[in-house]
Amino acid sequence: MNRSILKRRSRKKVRKEFELPLTSMMDMLIILLVFLLKSYSTSAVAFSTSSNIALPTSATPEAPTEGMNLMVEPAHVTMKNGKPELELGAIILEGQKVIEFTDQPQILPPTKPDEPPTVDQAGVKYALQPQLVGDDGRRILPLFDALTKEKEKVEYIHKTQKFVDANGQPTEPKPFNGTLFIHADKAVQYQLLRKIMYTAAAAEFRIFKLITARKEETSAPPPDAPKKGT
Amino acid sequence: MFRKPSSRRKSESQEVQLNLVPMLDALVTLVSFLLMTMGYMAIAVIDTPAPMLAAPAEQIKEMKKEEPPLQLTLEIQAERILVHDWTGSRENHMIPSKDDPAKLGEKTYDLEALHQRLLDIKKRHPKERQLILKPEPGVPYDSLISIIDSGRFFEKTDTVPQEVLDEANKRMLEKKTTILEDKDLFPEIVFGNILST
Fold first, then answer.
1. Smallest CA–CA separation between A214 and chain B, in Å?
2. Assuming Cys at both sites, which of B76, B79, B142, B188 could form a disulfide with B135, CB separation 3.0 to 4.6 Å?
């Protein structure tokens, strides 16, 4: 008698299963998926920019294509062993640091406890060592060398490698067109840009593409450019 | 027909349930993939070819046939923008900076006035497509980009003049494309003082 009652109770417990309300979760995920698919850009070129550069915003419709990347990075703070350390601003070509600016800006303590320390950008001139600049202060010599090397690299590859088209037929590679993408912080002054463009033109890079963050099409004033990019 | 008592008990507990778990798995994978590969920032480019010392021979021939190009130049100075053609005889304007509404006591370039002035000039010279910039060394990159922006395209609120539309149609037929460039104000930007000392 006693045993049979216990048996019946345990049987009931088995039947009462816990079920997750999956349908609502599915709804949510599908909405998220549709949103992501809509905002997914199908660009053939994987493009990256530095997180230390605040790009200016522009309403221009063109998207980037292929070319060499040159970044003008302002001085910023990096954390080393838990201590803030100043990293000087630099010109970076294809991920390689070419030349550093001589400015030594102050590290400002954070205004709020959670935020990282920032760099005092006031008075930063993006100055270069005078012995590294030629042609009456117009040509940045290390940048000229680096650009020439990059150009020679492309030409060497064109000469020595065989190129095939989509059907496997041998074909001529596209000629070197000298496209240079310039990622510059919005605080950079024109005098530095002019030096960079002069140097690039001398190294036979004749098409400059200025990289900007795309402005949203609203009547509201543009917010500061987002800092993170992929 | 009456069912046996045992089978009646079984049929009560039978419910049709979709197996959503594998579908959920697939969706979660897809969403995380899209989130990982998504660009957080839409990137745009502005083309500026380096100025050439001499125009190509074909262009020079064409130039001789028609009226000389305007060579519309913007001289961007600290507190004003000068708009003129290369001789200053056909177009010559000055756009002073206005007070910055965001920062007290500071000046900012009057981009609306500049845009309006460029619209007027485009109406008078619908064939012109080039804008030469001559900024002073101290002009910040951010201001430069906003000035380029106000000069390259018509804005959505602008009415495109008939002369410009006719010219865009003509260009489309000449180039044998289907792209109607009716939103172009002065899309070709050149920095005019790169080579000067």
1. 5
2. B76
Q: What is the pLDDT of residues A168-187, one digit of tens each?
A: 888 877 778 888 999 998 88
**Burial zone of A199 (CB within 10 Å; 0-12 exposed, 13-18 middle, 19+ buried):** buried
pLDDT surpasses 60 at A189 = yes
Q: Could you say which residues of chain B have pLDDT below 70?
A: 1-14, 39-41, 52-67, 197
Q: Does B19 touch chain A (CB under 8 A)?
A: no
Record: contact B44-A39, CB cut-off 8 A = no
Q: Residue A80 has which token pair?
A: 């080393």
Q: Which residues 174-193 of B have a C-beta within 8 angstroms of A?
A: 191, 193
B16 touches chain A (CB under 8 A): no
- Which residue reads 């949103």 in tokens? A35
Whether the predicted pLDDT of A166 surpasses 60: yes
Which residue in chain B has the smallest CA separation from A125?
A: B138
- Concatenated DSSP letters for B19-58? --HHHHHHHHHHHHHHHHH--SS-EEEEEEEPPPSS--HH
ipTM of the prediction? 0.75
Instruction: Kindly tell me if the per-residue pLDDT of A53 is higher than 70.
Output: yes
Using a CB–CB cutoff of 8 Å, tell me whether B82 touches chain A: no
